[in-house]
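assembly run, all chains below
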Amino acid sequence: MSKQAAAAGSPEGTARKIFSAYDDPGTPEEISRRSFMANATLVIGGIVGLGLVIPIVGSLIPQGASSKGTWAPLTADEFKSLQEATNKPVKLDFALKSKDSYLPEQSSSEYVWGIKTDKQKFESARTDLPTSGTLPYSDGSYDVVNMNFVILSPICPHLGCRPVWNDQATRFQCPCHGSQFNFDGEHVAGPAPRGMDPLPLREQSGVAEIMWIRYESGVPNRVIISYQS
Amino acid sequence: MLNWIESRTGFVSMAKEFLVEDIPGGASYWYVFGSATLFAMILQIVTGIFLTFFYAPSANTAWESTRAIYLNPWTHALLSIHYWGASAMIALVFLHLLQVLIWGAYKSPRELQWIVGVLLFLVTLVLGLTGYLLPWDMDAYFASQVSLNIAGLPPGGEILQLIAQGGPVMGTNTINRFFGLHVWLMPAALVLLVGAHLAIFRHNGAAGPVVDDPRKLRPGRFWPDQMFMDGAASFFVFIIILALATFAPPFLDQKADPTNAAFQPYPAWYFLFLFGLLNFVPWLFSHIPFLASQADTPWVEMLAAIVVPTIGLLIVLLLPWLDRSTTRSFASRSKILWSTFFTIAAIVALSIYAQTGIQAKIAAGPPSESEAQILAEPAEAATTTSTTAGGGASAASAAGAQVFSQNCTSCHGTNGQGQPGVAPPLVNNPFVTGDPKAVIKVVEDGLHGQTIMGQTYGAQMPAWKSTLSKSDLAAVLTYIRGSLGSNKASPVTESQL
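ok done. output:
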C-alpha cells in the first residue's frame, strides 16, 4: 500500500501524495460497515467450511459392510481325517471366500483346528463358553459341539497370533506371548483373556461346512468383528 | 493469544500484510472473478484429496471404486461437488481471462501475469482432461482415446502419445499416468503458478478500472471491503455448485469396454469447441471446390485438431505484444475487442455445432442403460463362454456360407434374420454392413449384454477367434457382409483380422 501511494504521484507532478486507503480511518459509519463485512466474510467462510466438512466426515465413517458369514466346504478327505481323529487336533484347510470392499470376491487358503470330543466333557472344561452351548452369529446361533466335533479358530484370543499344537506338551502354544490352551481350547496359561474361539460347523447334503468368524482380540468376551480374514 | 503467536511466529503481521492492499477506485463486484476462481481451486483440492481416499487407479479397480463412490451418498456428494466444481473452475478462469482481455489489464507491466494466467488456464484444462478418464467408464475410455490419438497426430506425436498412454494401447498404465498427472503433477503446477500469479499481482498492484487518469482514483481497501465481495461471490458459486451437484449429479456409465464399437464418445462441454473444430474444418474443405479432395486427409485433421488451436493459443499468449495501443481505453483497442467478440462467438457456435451433432448421434444410437441398472450390476465382468465350432476347413468357394450355417444359424437364424430376445438380425443391420473393423472385433472377441437397435438379446456371442481359423473368419465375415439377404458391403480379407 505504501508502494502504491508512492507510485501514484500527483497529476501535476508535484510531491503531493495520495495516501493508502488504510491511512484514512473513515467515518464511524464506515468503521461499523467494515466490521460487519469482516464478520460476514468469516461467517461465509465458516458456512462453506461446514458444508464441506459434513460430507467429508460422513464419507470417512465406514459403511456397514456385508456382515454375513459364508459357509466354506471341507473336502471329504479332510472331514474323514477329522472323523478318525483321536486325541490330536486336526488342521483343516479350506478356501475362504472374502469380499474386500469394491474388489471382486477373492479366495484365499485358510485353516482351522478340528477336534473330536465329547459334548459333556467339552462343556465342563470350557467354562468361558455360555452354558447354553451355543454362540451367536449372523444367522442366529450355532452349537459349539456339533456331531461331537468342535472347530477352533486358529487365531489366538490374546493378540491375534496363531497358536500351534505341541504333541509333547499336548497343548496349543502361542509363539508370540506364550499363551497355552489344552486339547479343548481351554485357556490354561499365559496372557490370553479367554479360551480359543469355537467356529460354526454344519453338514449340508453330505458335505461338512464351516464358517470363518473373526473375534476381537484381547478382551474376555467374544465380540464378532468380521466374517472375513 | 494472538500476541503470543505473533511474538513467536510473526504470522499475525504476515496475515495483515497479506490482507492490506489498496484497490484503485475502491472495491467492486467486477473484481471477484480471480478470487472466485481461487475459491473453486481450493474446493477442487479439498474434495479431490478426499476422493483419493476412495479411488484406486488401475484397470481392475478404477470403475469398481468409482462405482463404490457412487453407492455411498457421502462420497457421491463429494464426487458431484468435484465434478461441478471442475466446470465452475473452468468457467471462472475463462471469465477472469475474458475480463482481463476486455479491460486490457495485460498491458505493461502485467505481461508476465497474463502469461502465467494463460498457463493456469491450460493447466486447468489438462486437469479436466485427465480427470475425465479416471472413472474408466465407456465415455471416459472413448473420449480419452480420441484425445490421446489427437496427441499422436503431429510428427513426433507418436512418442508423446506413447508416453501419455504408458503403452501402445490404453490400459491400466494409462489410468496410473493420468491419475499421477491429475492428483500430483498438475495440482502442484497449479499451486506454484497461482503463487507466482498472486506475487506478480501484489508487485504491480491491482490494475483498476479503465479511466483516463488512474492516478486520480481514490483507493479502497482489499480487507474487508473487497474480501467481503469476493466471499459473497464465492458463496454464490458454492451454492450453484451444490445445487447442480444435488439436482444434476454426474452419470456413471458401464465399465470401459474397448470392444463396444457402437459407443459414441462425447467430450466435456469445455472441449466441445475443439470437437466442433475437428468436424467443421473437414466440412469446410469439402465445400471448397479445389480443396474438396483433401477434406478427409490426415493433414486436414491435424490442421483442425492441432494447428488452429496452437495458433490460437500463441495469439492469446502474445497478446500483450500484439496489442499496440498505448492506453487501455476501449476506443483505442477496438480491433482487439472486436476480435475477442468474434472469437467468443466462434467458440460458442462451434460448441453448439458439436453438441447438436453429438445429440443427433446419441439419439440415433442404442439407448443407454439407466444409472440404477449400471450401479446394481455386479462389478465382476461377465465370464466368456467358449463354444466348440462344428465346422473347420471347407471348400474355399462356399466356405463363408458353410461356416455361417454351421456356426451362426442356431442363434442368428438360417437367413440371418435373428431371433427376438436371443440374437440380433444380421440382415438390414447397419452395424454388420458398416465399419468392417467393428464387425471383425465382435466376431473375433464376442459380445454380450449390448443393446442393439433398441433391443436386448440374451445369447452370448462367442469369441470366434479361439475356435475358427483366420480363413474361416474372413470367409464368414465376407459372407454376412456381402451375400446375406440384401447386404452388399465390402469383403473382409485375412490380413484385416
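The CA atoms of residues 133 and 144 of chain B lie 6 Å apart.

Confidence is low (pLDDT under 50) at residues 379-397 of chain B.

not gonna interpret more than that til we talk
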